[in-house]
Amino acid sequence: MSVPKVVKPSNSPSQFLWQDITEYVQPPTAEEDKKLPKSKSSKIPAGKARCIRLFPTQEERLKLRRWIGTVRWTYNQCLSAVEKGVNRNKKDLWAQCLNAVNFMDNAELKWVMETSYDIRDEAMNDLLKGYCHQL
To answer: I want to staple 75 with a disulfide (CB 3.0 to 4.6 A). Which of 7, 115, 123, 124 is the partner?
Structure first.
């Protein structure tokens, strides 16, 4: 088995080795020539992103704003509870800030129940993640 020789990309030697390495173009091998042509697929290549713009209706905009407001409020309620001494775990925060019983008795907080539990739960999880990564 022979070791291939490294050939400089140009006739003039550069001042830095890293330039020689980064500018080097590897010649094609016989194995690459035998490969089948790549078929076009709709899959996005790794490292690329596709931007999608949404155009919600007025009703959907209002719903999104309510949800975002409820998430902000829930996050702040959980933060306040932790600062007051509630344990930083899901069970205790759920009982203090997310349990439906807390909102049914208070007429001012019935708007919280209009937002899905899963959305409010993610606000609590975001707070817990923040505390985990802070330490």
So the answer is: 123
